[in-house]
Amino acid sequence: MAPEAAARPTRAELRLAAREQSRAQRRGAAKAATRTALLRVALPSVAALGVAAAAAVSVQGQTDQQHAEAAGRAPRSAPDSPDGATARQAATQALAGGDQTQASRGDTRQPLAGTQPTDAPGAQPTATPTAQPTVEPAKPKVVMPVARHGLGELFGEAGTHWANRHTGIDFPVDGGSEVYAVADGTIRTQWNPFYGYMSILKMDDGTEAWFCHLRAYKVRKGPVKQGDVIAFVGSSGNSTGPHLHFEIRPQGSGPVDPLPWLLANGLDPR
Ligand SMILES: [Zn+2]
Q1: What is the average per-residue pLDDT within 224-239?
Q2: 3-state secondary structure 179-210
């Protein structure tokens, strides 16, 4: 073979390299094959560059899935899990155009905010059809905040001891009565001259339940389960006697009427 011919790959060698790349892709070892092909041909062809891009995207997709798993968003991730599908979808979109991957990731986050019923008092968070199952907030399972039924002042009523209108509902129960976490969530507590000792439960979907005029806390901070005793009824703050003042505040919203919220969860506190 003449020296000139040896310095450049022949058509036959290029075809051989392309076939090797194709086989390697089917084996799922596109990256390694690309490297081998580049070494042998010593001339990056358009086809080889394409394979290299595909390999990079494939690795990126796997990395995304690993991040998702590390972040705990896909604790039951399996090859056929929705999260795996998401990673594959992201990889596919990256092949079509790199920017679409970012757009896709942004879209999966939107349902988190979109499920908050900010304009419908008492409405339940509903699943958005486009929501990814792994990031969709779980619908809270709800229990009553106190054991005894019966309501005092309702939501929206005008009262002499409220600055504006009543922003919750009152349970006229005895001082010292147990107050329960209405759903799984995280507790924080604070003093407010109006609400007195108050406990705030942030639920998984971002909704907050406020328990006010408390006498004492059982849980000052941290995660609780639905039904846990979190505090005891009192009359602290701007209160005329022992009762539990209960508010529901969907994420990004002011207080909504807790009565339809409870009714929609199958609970009638009346
Ligand atoms: Zn009240």
Answers
A1: 97
A2: EECCCCEEEEEEEECCCEEEEEEEECCCCEEE
Distance 262 CA to ligand 1 centre (A): 16
Residues 33-86 pLDDT 10s: 444 444 454 444 555 445 544 444 444 444 444 444 444 444 444 444 444 444
240 lies in some domain: yes
Which domain, by its residues, includes 44? 13-96
Q: From ligand 1's centre to the CA of 108, what distance in Å?
A: 38
Q: How far is the CA of 172 from the centre of ligand 1 (A)?
A: 9
Kindly state whether residue 41 falls inside one of the protein's structural domains.
Answer: yes
Number of domains forming the structure of the chain = 2
Q: Is position 129 within any domain?
A: no
User: Over the stretch 8-35, which tens digit does the pLDDT of each residue have?
Assistant: 656 666 565 556 555 555 555 444 444 4
Please report the pLDDT score of residue 39 as a whole number.
Answer: 44
CA of 170 to the centre of ligand 1 (A): 5
C-alpha distance from residue 120 to each of 19, 33, 151, 263, 266 (Å): 61, 57, 22, 14, 18
